[in-house]
Amino acid sequence: MGETNIDSDQIRRQPHGSVGAAAGQKAIAQSNSAEFAEALFRYSAPEEVMTFPSTCGACAAMCETRMFVTRIPYFQEVIVMASTCDACGYRNSELKPGGPIPEKGKRITLCVKNINDLSRDVIKSDTASVKVPELELELTSGTLGGIVTTVEGLITKISESLERVHGFTFGDSLDESKKNKWLDFKASLNKILSMSEPWILILDDALANSFIAPATDDIKDDHQLICEEYERSWEQNEELGLNDIDTSSADAAYNENTHG
Length: 260
Ligand SMILES: [Zn+2]
Prior knowledge:
By secondary structure, this protein is of the alpha+beta class. It contains 6 helices and 14 strands.
């Protein structure tokens, strides 16, 4: 079986220069499903949740937004906002970084050994790549967008996304070998979720906005989870628009003054 790659060509590239500023404020994840908010609100005590009136993003009716700011242990300070519209049922949840852009990138490696590991919370930001060596699978950053899920949910979403992107559906005129390749891959996906053997999940996030929950109170006792920080390369900073983050506004002001 060959390596399965989805590249991020479909992902809109923002013009250079504005990206750095945007990268810091950009949501880690955004969703219209209920499960997202439920998963994150578990990290907060009810009295920490603020409620304020807002307008529905779909129908403009008045609705209520719940918000809290918290520090997720072994992750970072985050801002969670969720609203549900009683009038039209539209839901919107957003997870944002609460602090400055982390200085270093972060690589998280989880050895998935038992069925409980499948229900660990996972936050995969848009800038994280996902690797599953057992499947020869690598999804580059920008693929799948930002999601709040579990280990099992992540694998399921990858499967659904590959199926959609490659149009692997039964009954169409897909040639036989491609179809068999996909069926093989899907069988391997199901096999890793059946936990007959341990497997490795790697999230590599240049902006360190991703997270896999430890199974123990102290992360040091969790021998299946390894978090490594690394210096971003110049290319990675360039990709994230961080190399000119400090000069872009000055440049704009300069241009405005000289040409405006
Ligand atoms: Zn509405």
